[in-house]
C-alpha cells in the first residue's frame, strides 16, 4: 500500500479529498477523504488496489475548491511514478467558491517614487503594501522590509516576482496575521555595491544606515506600525538576503525577524562571525531557505549559517528544497511558509 502526507497553510473546516486517475477524477468520494491530523496536517493510505503510476490532485470537495500554488494560480496534475511507498506534499492554498481570493482582500498600495537616501546621495522608489481593510480600522501592524523591490510584486521584472501582493491577499483570505510590506527597489548597477556591507566603500553599511535612520522612521510616522523589534523584519534573496542577514545581526534593537532566501554567503567569511554576534534571549526569528539546484556550495554554506545562528541563540527555521533553483519562482513558492513562520508561529 502507498501513503501520502499533506501539509497545507489553507486549513479550515472543509475536509480534504484526493482525486485522480484512480477514481475517474471524482472529487468527493468518502473512500478518498484524508484524515485530519490537526495543525494543517493530513494523511491518507490508498486502498490495496490503487498503486502507482497515477495522476492526482487535492480538493476540498469539488473543483471550485481545488488546490492552488502559492500565488493562487492553477497547478498541473501531480504525478506519482515509480515504487515510492510514501510521499509528502504541500498545498499553500485552496480555491474557495471558484476563486483564489476575494478581490477585496488585495492589499492597498502607496508609492514614494523618489525617496532621498542621504548617506548614499541618491534616490530610490519605495512601495508600501497595506493590508486589506487598513483604512477601516485603527489596528497597528508588523512591518517587513523587502529588498529588490522590482522583483517582489506586480508582475516583477524579466526575472519574475515573488507575487507579494497576491500572497498578502491569500493570507487575508485565510485569516492570517496581516502586515505592512515595505518594498525597496534595488539600485540597478549599484545593487551589488549597496547589498555588500563588506566591500571597500561600505555602501551596504550606508544602505542600512538609510533604512534604519531615515526610511523606517518615515514609515512609522506615516503608517500605523508596530515599531518594536519583534514586529520588524528584513527580507531578501541572494545579495538581498546577505544585506538582510547583516542588518538583523548588526541592528538587533531594530530587527527581530529575518527572511533570508539563498543568501550570497560567498561574499565574505566575516558573515559567519557577524551572525554569531546575534544576542541570545532576544527572540530573534530567522527563516533560512536554499534550493538544491543552486550553485555549488550554496546549500552547505546555508547549513553552516543555520548552525551558527542557532548556537548564537536565534530561533531558526531551515528549509531546503532539493529541486529548487536560484530564482524568483522558487523564492515566490517558499514565501508563504516563511511568512507563516515569522508572523503566525510562536517560538516561545
Observed structural traits:
348 residues, alpha/beta, Immunoglobulin-like, Rossmann fold, 2 domains, 8-stranded mixed sheet, 4-stranded mixed sheet, 7 helices, 24% helix, globular
| Annotated CATH architecture of the largest domain | 3-Layer(aba) Sandwich
Order of helices and strands: EEEEEEEEEEEEHEHHEHEHEHEH
CATH homology group of the largest domain: Alpha/Beta hydrolase fold, catalytic domain
Strand order of the largest sheet: 10-11-13-12-14-15-16-17
From the alpha-carbon coordinates, what is the Rg to the nearest angstrom? 21 Å
* Tally of DSSP β-strands: 17
Spans of at least 5 consecutive residues with low confidence: none
Give the helix tally: 7
Quaternary state reads single chain
Largest β-sheet summary: 8 strands, mixed
Pfam families: Esterase (PF00756)
InterPro entries: AB_hydrolase_fold (IPR029058), Esterase-like (IPR000801), Mycobacterial_A85_antigen (IPR050583)
GO molecular function: hydrolase activity
Keywords: Hydrolase
Describe this structure in words.
This protein has two domains: 3-94, Immunoglobulin-like, CATH 2.60.40; 103-344, Rossmann fold (3-Layer(aba) Sandwich), CATH 3.40.50. The model has no long low-confidence stretch (mean pLDDT 95). Strand 14, helix 4 and strand 15 (257-261) form a beta-alpha-beta unit. It contains seven helices and 17 strands. The chain starts with a strand and ends with a helix. It has 348 residues and is of the alpha/beta class. One of its GO terms (molecular function) is hydrolase activity. It holds the Pfam family Esterase. Keywords: Hydrolase.
